Amino acid sequence: MAKLMQTILLGYGVEVDDSPYGLMFWIIRSEENMKCNDIAVLIDIVESLYYVLYARVVIELANIELCSLAEDENAQRRAHSLAFLLPSAEHLYRIVFAFKIVMDSREICAMLQKEIIEKYQRRYIKSATEIVNKKGEALFDRFGYRRYVLSILLNKEGKYYQKWSSLIPCFDTIAPGVIVLLSDKYRTVDQVIVLPDDIPYDELPFVERNQLGPISWTDEKLKDDRDASLAKLNHICIGEQRRRRSSFESYWLTKEHKCICLSTCRCCDECTANTARHCPCAERHVRLMTSTRLPNHNKAGFVARVNTVARMSFYGLSFLKRDVPDQAIMEQLEAGFDMFEVLISKERCEPVRPTLRTTSRV
Fold first, then answer.
1. Domain of life of the organism in this record (predicted)?
2. Which run of H or of E encompasses 264?
3. Residues 212, 39: contact at Cβ < 8 Å?
4. Which of 27, 111, 119, 190 is the most buried (most CB within 10 A)?
5. How confident is the model at residue 362 (pLDDT cuts 50, 70, 90)?
6. Most confident residue range from 182-196, 215-229, 317-331
């Protein structure tokens, strides 16, 4: 989950603190000690990573919610773009809030130590304030965002202020201008920082249609049309129809840019209506399957594979339809956890155990 949060923060261009009280510091330390067998060291890393992540998640939820209260001037672009765009603040809030739900689970932490969370929050706020003051950023207020959110922050009797001042003990110590600048990051549409993938795009095992002979292509077209017809008769999408077959066949289908997505994905309706369409999620599925099936492909290290799984998992969450129930977000998140679990178990050369299943969520 920390890697997912890191991916989100970097994508939106939000500062990721690498001090001993920062999220990046503990992510790097956990990666460096992935093969460590010292229980004391592992407990210290997992516990520290949990609390620094929890503290950061709560603060970012406040920033994201503040951003979501303003009108999204990029709503049309997000809705109609064929390329991946960062989700709106409203949808992102649901994703990050799902992180908090998982972390609040007694399976993860039986007794939450709020004073530790407050310590990390104060450290981050101090660091963020210093960065803002040092950069001296002036927010370009073309759409009136600064004026609008400042009016919300200055209303101490309002719902927003009352809610977050109760959840973040040091909330009233944050300068309104700092919160404005931090929340403004979540208006970003195009990714700011993307960590390198384990496999370059050109080396992904895609099968292009021009590689198929005319007879094979015709057979594939007939099969695709049949799947689409069956899907419509069963009131499901083509991806769900294809998933009724073996998972190995799904791997080959997505290598041909074919849709294997569930009905909760934004692409499913168009992919069902147009079987010749290249599914925009094909790269995500291929990368996830390749990263977990071929851990040593192209000599990519553990960190690169985890970065890829984190980014693709975030893409999956981002491509969910905006009206999906919260359970759909949790299921997509669980699927990402399962991928991390596989990578960790392979890196440690261990079978998946209940303790590993729990810690892989942090």
1. Eukaryota
2. none
3. no
4. 27
5. confident
6. 317-331
| Rounded CA separation 206/203 (Å) | 8
Distance, in Å, from the CA atom of 249 to the CA atom of 204, rounded to the nearest integer, reads 17
Measure the CA–CA gap between 251 and 260, rounded to whole angstroms. Answer: 9
List phi, psi (to 5°) of 123.
Answer: -65, -45
- Over residues 84-109, the mean pLDDT reads 92
Amino acid (one-letter) located at 98: A
- Between 40-49, 113-122, 190-199, the lowest mean confidence (pLDDT) is in 190-199
Residues 6+ apart with CB under 8 A from 272: 228, 231, 232, 237, 238, 239, 259
Region class of 132: left (phi > 0), else alpha (psi between -120 and 50), else beta: alpha
Give the residue from 134, 190, 160 showing the smallest Cα distance to 13: 190
Residues making up the chain, counted from first to last? 362
Is pLDDT larger for residue 273 or for residue 197? 273
Sign of the torsion formed by the C-alpha atoms of 4, 5, 11 and 12: positive
User: Which amino acid, 211?
Assistant: Q
Identity at 44, one-letter amino acid code? D
Q: Are 164 and 171 within 8 A, CB to CB?
A: yes
φ, ψ for residue 265, nearest 5 deg? -85, 145
Residue type present at position 194: V
Whole-number Å distance between alpha carbons of 193 and 202: 20
pLDDT at 213: 63
